[in-house]
């Protein structure tokens, strides 16, 4: 046969392949699931001490399964004196005693595996606790451990008084330097005094943290969320005459001079060296993958410019995190945002991420006011539709499936250092992270079913009698039921592989289209308590009728109802998933 006859065939074959490789590559477990963040202290208390624990989590894994989640990430459950509620780790290789034992952890991972749920831990590499053996040994003059930390000489002022080496500030207010008599120097703590920064210019520290990573991977975890990773390195002081330079003022308005935001953190954040440490961790994760074929994931916690955030994906042939957290839906928008603002916030990550990497969508965590509080309870379904049906990985902070709101925590009950360090019984609420950490709401019983204790570590939020899992399970329609339906729908090939386009249909109505091989879905979210009639034919290839697939709980429409795409009536705050064809 002459080659020319083969040509059309070959061309067709090549085209076919090109399309397959772009759109239909098999998704890995982490790309199609939902990651559900559990704050262990607040999820479920099994032993009645008012504090959540590992056995509590294990007892609720079936609930996780029931809502359609395939992976949990646990905020730190390592040994800690709890000055920053677990982010100050005194033993990176042990389970915190209030939370249980290593056996309890093994039971948790075993049950999770039976249910097909992956477990991801929080890696806190930037600092240890001042009660860690490492820091204690450093104080005793052990050179190896002294070099684990960042020490500087005092500056003696004109009056002969000792002053911190420079103006650097803690995230939790005041100087980032603390003097230790035993050593005769200041140590750096970018967070609370009890969180001395580790020195990443010391290869021993790098090796130690890799060891921590391996230790927990050996115990079956599927990866790590990496805490405050853009704080790992401080500027190389040798480039500044051997002294850490002051940071310039940020010029932020209405911010006091002891507030972290008052400085521009050019010397303590986002230093170039950071990325290579992250890429090295990825190599360790991939080493484990090479053993058994299971991809271990890394999610990095970085609040920075989008240009810096996407560097965590990798560089050239160095791989980095699969999920540099995308916080734009926390930091850039809220209840007051217009549909255009939402569109811009969503498009941002999609625009900057490398084409062959996945986006991820986060609307809440233990450091930020809860999603239902920030966006308003009426938008809970709309926001869950957005984060679960956009292209990429969905992340849920525990309770978002129910629309849990921030609890009120009085000054007397406030325990978060970010609130306490304000020393301001009136305005502490602006900084305290306790409200988003109040106990999970399981049912209408004592302490919302979280604990049998007389006092829980934080008070249970008001209104739990009607806002809880049991009520929403029993209801015909609820945020929980909708969440489950969305979790199932996101497994559809259109949401797994389909393309994406978004529009602000007007000031108030945000919408996006997902399509794949002739199938088309639309998600429409009315962000205001105002009725609208919207024309969906502004989307290409949308005409004729659209059919209701899922609707927010305030919608009067029924599943299966049809409306002309050119004129869809929307009630206030109504959100819909529609099928076009
Ligand atoms: C991260 C954590 C936060 C903690 C801080 C210090 O931002 O999410 O809760 O206080 O790091 O570890
Ligand atoms: Mg307990």
Features:
2 domains; Oligo-1,6-glucosidase, domain 2; binds alpha-D-glucopyranose; binds magnesium ion; 6-stranded antiparallel β-sheet; globular; 581 residues; TIM Barrel; alpha/beta
3D structure, described in words:
The protein is an alpha/beta fold. It folds into two domains: 30-127 and 203-230 and 272-483, TIM Barrel (Alpha-Beta Barrel); 128-197 and 235-270, Oligo-1,6-glucosidase, domain 2, CATH 3.90.400.10. Helix content is 28%, strand content 17%. The chain contains 18 helices and 25 strands. Strand 19 and strand 20 form a beta hairpin. Residues 10-21 have low confidence and may be disordered. The structure holds alpha-D-glucopyranose and magnesium ion (MG). The site of alpha-D-glucopyranose (GLC) has 9 residues, from loops.
CATH topology category name of the largest domain? TIM Barrel
The unreliable regions are: 10-21
CATH superfamily grouping of the largest domain:
Glycosidases
* Strand content bin: 15-25%
| Count of the separate structural domains | 2
Helix fraction bin: 25-40%
Annotated CATH architecture of the largest domain = Alpha-Beta Barrel
Q: Which structural class matches the secondary elements? A: alpha/beta
Instruction: Output the number of helix runs.
Output: 18
Number of DSSP strand runs? 25
Mean pLDDT, to the nearest integer, reads 96
CATH C-level name of the largest domain = Alpha Beta
Q: Which molecules are bound besides the chains? A: alpha-D-glucopyranose, magnesium ion
Oligomer: single chain
Shape: globular
First-to-last CA distance = 43 Å
Strand order of the largest sheet: 15-12-11-5-2-1-17-16
Largest sheet: 8 strands, parallel
Radius of gyration: 25 Å
């Amino acid at each position: 046969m002459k080659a020319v006859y083969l040509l059309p065939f070959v061309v067709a074959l090549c085209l076919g392949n090109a399309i397959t490789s772009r759109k239909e590559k098999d998704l890995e477990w982490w790309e199609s699931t939902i990651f559900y963040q559990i704050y262990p202290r607040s999820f479920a208390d099994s032993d009645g001490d008012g504090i959540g624990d590992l056995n509590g989590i294990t007892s609720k894994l079936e609930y996780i399964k029931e809502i359609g989640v395939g992976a949990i990430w646990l905020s730190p459950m390592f040994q800690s004196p709890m000055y920053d509620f677990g982010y100050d780790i005194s033993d990176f290789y042990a389970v915190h005693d209030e939370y249980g034992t290593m056996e309890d952890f093994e039971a948790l991972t075993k049950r999770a595996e039976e249910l097909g749920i992956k477990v991801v831990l929080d890696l806190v590499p930037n600092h240890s606790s001042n009660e860690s053996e490492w820091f204690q040994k450093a104080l005793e003059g052990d050179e190896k451990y002294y070099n684990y930390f960042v020490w500087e000489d005092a500056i003696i002022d004109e009056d002969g008084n000792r002053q911190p080496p420079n103006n650097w500030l803690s995230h939790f207010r005041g100087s980032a330097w603390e003097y230790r008599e035993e050593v005769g120097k200041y140590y750096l703590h970018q967070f609370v005094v009890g969180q001395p920064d580790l020195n990443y210019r010391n290869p021993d520290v790098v090796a130690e943290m890799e060891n921590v990573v391996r230790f927990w991977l050996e115990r079956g975890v599927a990866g790590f969320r990496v805490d405050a990773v853009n704080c790992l390195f401080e500027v190389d002081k040798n480039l500044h005459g051997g002294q850490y330079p002051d940071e310039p003022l940020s010029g932020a308005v209405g911010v006091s001079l002891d507030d972290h935001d008052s400085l521009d953190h050019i010397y303590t954040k986002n230093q170039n060296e950071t990325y290579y440490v992250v890429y090295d961790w990825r190599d360790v994760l991939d080493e484990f993958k090479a053993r058994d074929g299971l991809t271990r994931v890394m999610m990095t916690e970085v609040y920075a410019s989008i240009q810096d955030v996407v560097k965590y994906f990798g560089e050239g042939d160095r791989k980095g995190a699969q999920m540099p957290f995308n916080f734009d839906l926390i930091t850039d928008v809220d209840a007051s945002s217009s549909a255009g603002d939402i569109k811009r916030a969503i498009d941002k990550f999609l625009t900057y991420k490398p084409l062959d990497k996945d986006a991820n969508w986060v609307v809440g965590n233990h450091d930020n006011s809860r999603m239902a509080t920030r966006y308003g309870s009426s938008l809970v379904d709309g926001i869950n539709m957005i984060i679960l049906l956009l292209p990429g990985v969905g992340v849920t902070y525990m309770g978002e499936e129910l629309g849990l709101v921030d609890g009120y925590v009085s000054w007397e009950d406030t325990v978060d250092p970010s609130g306490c360090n304000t020393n301001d019984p009136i305005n502490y609420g602006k900084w305290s992270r306790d409200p988003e950490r109040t106990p999970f709401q399981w049912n209408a019983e004592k302490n919302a079913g979280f604990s049998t204790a007389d006092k829980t570590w934080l008070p249970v939020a008001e209104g739990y009698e009607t806002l809880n899992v049991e009520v929403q399970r029993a209801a015909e329609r609820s945020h929980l039921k909708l969440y489950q339906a969305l979790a199932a729908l996101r497994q559809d090939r259109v949401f797994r592989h389909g393309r994406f386009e978004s529009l602000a249909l007007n000031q108030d109505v945000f919408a996006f289209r997902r399509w794949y091989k002739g199938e088309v879905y639309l998600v429409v979210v009315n962000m205001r308590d105002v009725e609208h009639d919207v024309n969906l034919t502004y989307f290409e290839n949308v005409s004729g009728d659209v059919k209701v697939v899922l609707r927010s709980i305030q919608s009067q429409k029924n599943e299966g109802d049809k409306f002309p795409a050119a004129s869809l009536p929307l009630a206030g705050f109504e959100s819909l998933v529609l099928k076009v064809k």
